[in-house]
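LOG
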Amino acid sequence: MTETHPHETGSDYTPLRSLAHRQPLMVTPATTLRETLYRISQSQHDAAIIIDAATDLPLGLVTLRDMLHVISFEDGDLDDPVAAHMLGAPPNLAADAPVHRAKVMMAKKGVAHLLLTEPDGRLFGLVTQADLLGLRAGGAESLIAAIGAARDLDAMVLAADQVRRRGAELFATGMGVEALCQWMSGLNDLIGMRVIELIEDEFELPPVPWCWIVFGSEGRLEQTFATDQDNGLLFVPPEPESTDAIRDAFLPFAQSVNEALHRCGFERCRGNIMAGNPECCLSADEWRQRFANWLWVPDPQALLHSTIFFDFRPLYGSSEPVDQLRDWLIAEAPGHDRFLHALAEQTLSVAPPLGWAGQFTFDRNRDFPHTIDLKLQGARYFMDAARLWALKWGVWATNTAERLRATGSGRGRLGEDTAAEIESFHLIQRFRIHQQLQTRDPDAVNRVDPDDLNELHRLMLKEALKQARKLQSRLRQEFPL
């Protein structure tokens, strides 16, 4: 990313620069180990960044643990220059990257420190694992280790199954829905990244910047226990004329990744929204043109695509072109009133399943009578409205709760009203997850019969759907049809 996004306020989509509350300890390459240790002892730091004093560019990193090891076991001299023992080119991210990306990178690389840099490469700050508590909750350390140690697809299949089993245990013990979804999404990100790494070794890919991107629930960090693949690939050709040839070179690799993810339990997308589809393996310019076409001509197909594609985020590879696409989208979308109104009309086309007297209503599904699809007639109301408001207000986040938080003040909502919207969304998600863990029928994973709920849960579900009705009323006022 190339700029701060002030609308973001939540945890996993907070820009990293907001977590770097103190100035890091910086030393020059010629500083001795003795001096560096002394300066660490006089501060609360456990690491020092080696920096080029002339350019402010970071050269390396040394931790207190590293220095003690060098002195104790490698015959290091206290008068050695710190540059002789530093870690060169330490892991780094843009200061405006979201927290979630840092969590995944630190877990993947097994590091405790991450440098934050400005767009020109200058150092901004340093974040540590202590700043990013969350992903390692719930006993994830062993799962992260298993994913990182996997050397073939069979091992990845086992690791993915272990993640789902542990996630089910956390849900059963009462872990909050938002925390659980972020936990699951973080580990699923690591699974996806490791799968791509394994498959990448089997192909000779074009030497151009490229990135695997994710859409839908994975893009929103809202993956539950019944999720299919929604992904794509973005690449940057050296010249437009080479686009088709580069796409043809990436497609066999992308199709192999899609097959490997399917084996790991991430079902193939029924709509073929997968990177192995040539329509989802595009250059950066083609992706931008496709989004522009959807904004300019909001036909039903464009609106359908917006509910999936507009929730994109980078997963693996060069994230900068994807961040640039997001920057362009959040600057461009607010000016397309026709598209936003059409999106609102689509969102309002399905009413919450409550009758005039507050009783549940049903969609007459022949296979599952007397049930409510809590994805299409529950969570969708909050997802669609949050996406619409995010596009209108130019919000970077893709997560539904984060979008509602970030746009609340712009919509004139009180904090407690926004909290009620988010709590209702998460309550519906909890009912969905419970159902997903109870059935193996893929067509029933989101369907709940209210008669199967106890009286308190029926009341809670009705109140959540009433919040969805209120949310739709606000949309009608804001986007009169």
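LOG (cont.) second protein
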Amino acid sequence: MKYIKNKEDRNSILFYLANLISIFGTAIYTFAISLYTLKITGSSISFSTTLILSVLPIIILNPFVGVIVDKFNKKKLAVIANALNGIFLFTVYLISNWKGLNLGTIYLSTFVITSINIIFDISIDSAIPNIVSKEKVVNINSGNRIIDSISSVLGPVLGGVAFAAFNIETFILINSISFIVSAILDTLIDFKYNTENESKEMYSESITVGKLNYFKEIAEGFKYLISKRYIIRILSIFIIFNFFISFSVTIPIPIILNNILEIPAKSYGLIQGGIPVGMIIGAFVVKKIMAKYKLNNIFSAVGIVMSVNIILLSIPILFKTINNINVYIMYYLIIMIFMGICISLVDIPFSYTMQTNIEEEYRGRSISLTISIVKVVVPISYIISGILLQSIEPYIVVLFGGISVLIISIIFFKYAKRLYN
């Protein structure tokens, strides 16, 4: 990296490489270890338990990790997190060669890796405004979104290939090495590039993790967050969008595609891949859109487009007159791509707003609390949608969600100017 003279460009490239290795490593590991669990147990419950254990720590630990990130050096935390994942997986590799890989070890490793990754994710997300200039924050968030989207598509594919090509022990060793490489790359990033002066460095060497009053610190972070009226209003619409996408798309659409329209499995996978493809497209165009329009106007417009997309998802069920299955496949694929674009046009501006409008000493807690709130709201929407689908037609749930987003987006647009008051 010495040949890259511009320190900001060097930071960006190192950031992308480190995240690419870390995110892909986690996505591939989670999928492959889940397949292995299914293979050795033959139980769908064990399979789903492994996936749940990859999400549960995010809800439980995020607020506490936010406190740690705000109180300690973000670079050290990011490096230590990746290094710990590498060391832990190497330990799992040794144990699996010695005693074999049992279900308890799989559950433990999944929980531990996800927990450690939370430290890395929040440390990196809250440090982005320090790694590059404010003008490049959107760029780096867009790049990160592209990496996330590609990993969501290729992670299961590469996980399946790795599962077939290697025994599980070798795969664990390779993943261990990838985390160590990511940690080394993190050490080369200048986390103070955009810090005005070192006197603003607020980390204290005298503080230890055990001495922190976590609940007090979380309460202070929450108090600070709700004092930012603009952030709270943007957060509210962000949460509403997440709720209704989960409510009217994530749960009912698989039922519509698989059970009602009887889309073939391969074609169903193609349709599902439309969202990450759309998210990549959205990540490429979001900066130009943000340069022309205010955030509240973007949210309103995207909300209206998103609501139309959701409503369109129910149309083939209302007017089932086409017998050509390929028409349905293309129809739903196009809608899913547009849904993905909408998601990027909400997620990236929201991340930018959080990173650039929250003071550094509260940034970790604010980001972690936001993620926790969204992660709690989404399962609630799953439950409500699932209960409703027991007694009413899926297209009604989809229509209700789409119309709700449309009404909320119009109201938000009408009163958007008040966000700045």
